[in-house]
């Protein structure tokens, strides 16, 4: 099952923003135990390639599909791919968005470009984005996704930023492909302290809300 199919099945991925990750393998195992298989480790965490390599090399044990997020340059894209990232996610469309997309295409992995406006969605699609991340989603809410489905029927949209257990289902009902679970599931403190049972419980709670 590829990443997009997995997202269609699970309807959720988690975005990890933490000052440190004690063990990326154990983090992924905790999330999968809670029902979340797609894990986005971000460049806001220091030494990300090392954590990606650890998570990717143990994916056969954990069952996780691990990618890199907050990718803003072609160099970061290449680093992440070399470390084993199975997908790339950008926060928006900076000057190197096309180069990031090209790096992902060359490696044969999905790329999810960030967007906020309809024009940016169009640009992301033109660059070959596998799905489009709409960030920050909470500013316009689920109705915005229903509106976007008018001109972009069938386009896989993923809300990110401010999605939680109380509104996640509403985003899906409005037409989102899947939602991004952030600190509701993976708080920086829990990740840094290796509170794996807590993360598993929070993942289960989030998935139940879907």
TrEMBL record:
<dbReference type="InterPro" id="IPR000887">
    <property type="entry name" value="Aldlse_KDPG_KHG"/>
</dbReference>
<dbReference type="InterPro" id="IPR013785">
    <property type="entry name" value="Aldolase_TIM"/>
</dbReference>
<comment type="pathway">
    <text>Carbohydrate acid metabolism.</text>
</comment>
<dbReference type="Pfam" id="PF01081">
    <property type="entry name" value="Aldolase"/>
</dbReference>
<comment type="similarity">
    <text>Belongs to the KHG/KDPG aldolase family.</text>
</comment>
<protein>
    <submittedName>
        <fullName>Bifunctional 4-hydroxy-2-oxoglutarate aldolase/2-dehydro-3-deoxy-phosphogluconate aldolase</fullName>
    </submittedName>
</protein>
<keyword id="KW-0456">Lyase</keyword>
<comment type="subunit">
    <text>Homotrimer.</text>
</comment>
<keyword id="KW-0119">Carbohydrate metabolism</keyword>
């Amino acid at each position: 099952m590829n990443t997009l199919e997995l997202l269609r099945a699970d309807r959720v991925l988690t975005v990890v923003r933490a000052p440190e990750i004690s063990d990326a393998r154990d983090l992924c195992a905790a999330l999968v135990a809670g029902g979340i298989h797609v894990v986005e480790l971000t460049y806001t965490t220091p030494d990300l390639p090392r954590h990606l390599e650890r998570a990717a090399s143990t994916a056969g044990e954990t069952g996780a599909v691990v990618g890199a997020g907050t990718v803003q340059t072609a160099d970061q894209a290449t680093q992440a791919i070399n470390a084993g990232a199975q997908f790339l996610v950008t926060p928006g469309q900076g000057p190197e968005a096309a180069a990031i997309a090209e790096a992902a295409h060359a490696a044969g992995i999905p790329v999810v470009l960030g967007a906020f406006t309809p024009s940016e969605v169009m640009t992301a699609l033109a660059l070959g984005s596998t799905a489009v991340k709409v960030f920050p989603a909470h500013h316009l809410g689920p109705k915005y996704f229903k509106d976007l489905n008018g001109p972009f029927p069938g386009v896989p949209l993923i809300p990110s930023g401010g999605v939680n257990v109380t509104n996640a289902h509403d985003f899906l009902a409005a037409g989102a492909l899947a939602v991004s679970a952030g600190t509701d599931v993976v708080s920086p403190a829990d990740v840094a302290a290796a509170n794996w049972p807590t993360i598993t419980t929070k993942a289960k709670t989030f998935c139940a809300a879907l």
